Amino acid sequence: MPPCQRVTLLDSTLRDGAQGEGISFSVADKLGIVDALDELGVDLIEAGNPGSNPKDKEFFKEAAGLRLRNARVAAFGSTRRKGVVASEDAQLRSLLDAGTETVVMFGKSWDFHVERVLGASLEENLEMIWDSVAYLRSEGRRVIFDSEHFFDGFAANPAYALDCLRSAVEGGAECLALCDTNGGSLPEAVAAGVEAAMGLSRVAGPAVTVGIHAHNDSGLAVANSLSAVRAGALHVQGTLVGFGERCGNANLSTIAANARLKLGLDCLRGNGLAGLSRAVRRVAEIANVTLDEGMPYVGLKAFAHKAGMHVDAVLKSPSSFEHVEPEGVGNERRILASEVGGRSVVMERLRKILPDAQKGDPAVGRALERLKDMERLGYQYEGAEASLSLLLRKSSGAYEPYFELVRYRTTGERSPAQSGDAVAARGTAQAHAMVQLTVGGVEEIQAAVGDGPVHALDQALRRALARFYPSLEGMRLADFKVRVIDGSGATAATVRVLIESRDSDCAWTTVGVSTDVIEASWLALVDSIEYKLEKDGVKAPLTQTQRPEAV
Asked: Residue 439 and residue 467: Cα distance in Å, rounded?
């Protein structure tokens, strides 16, 4: 394929993606995702079926007023029902009422589905496809025909599957999207099907293109999509983060990066791949989906290096262990520090604190030994880089504590159930915490009530520090995880606590380890607050003239 060709991307997050388990979009969610996809430079956004539910109908009304820079919104629906005239079919009418320039319409192309599921004759199905496409075209719409179950149909009855495509072309469809609806095809079968469809496309002329719509039930959606592109497809459908019904859809973030960086094909408008990682995280956040950080190109792990020999090589020449530049897809290289990382890893991280640090610098040796000592105790820093940053500061001598603990105390109480109700039978539990500390020689004591001891400790600690460090007001705990490291001690086992904190700018994770879960939580809490203050550029400790009461 000539490298100058352009592949159009259709994102189905709002339609196929919404069919994924646990996914539910409000109208506001859908509008936010449209904005993210438009900013990324996707060509088409398949936004739902306006005839299926009131929410989609409301969305299309809202979307009509959007001023999009790169993308176009498309409505999605099926061919007319059997025995109904196209102009009188409610489904087709709803597609027109959606007001989109482009309509994605699916129809059957597997003889098994036509006869056993649709209950129509093979000839009638061909008429339904032609009628529906021709009607939408007569009303001024551009039509993409999604050939449902195409590859299964092509394997069972290739002549009929191609007849279905031919009917769509004769009706006026400008794109034939071949669907691996069951997600069970292999790349070579996809390539053969695309090549057969390309024969029809060539007869129809350059106005008709072939596309691919792959599901991931065999783990091959991306491979099948790229196989289709290499066979001549110029239109790819999927979802940006890969979620969708069953095992999901083809992951468009991976496809877009591969198409541009490996095949030399343009597929995103605007800033292109530079905004890819940001767009993926934005869509995942709106969908309330925990992003797989092992995702190619966009995951946090995609350019993370841990082994010392690997790190040493990457620092000398990134291409030694990176197939593309992370900045090209809006990501960044991460050097993970651990007991297997070696001096090169520690030195690279330490240079962010001491820019002139060299391999022979004593601070590097101290940091490496401290890291190994902590990991022997059960600490793990590759998932808690905020705590790692503080550890390196302490080892380098660049650390000053923001406060000193005098003591803390937590207590808990539980009130008895007031009724026989299943929920009330659990009773009501509350935790209390008291924190006594000093900041620059000034003592502060605060107490708080929380839903649990860690929550109460967090509230009391921040309350005690509030008058000294006002920026803590914008910080919150986002996640709390406990893992038993050594179960041999039963209830006295060593535990590792990870705490994720957030403010308006970013998120960070800290770690604490102890045989006491409260102490482990306290250590992670302290790191979280100190990292926040360090990140904000707050000096520690405050001098007498800087304190609020001196103003």
From this structure: 10
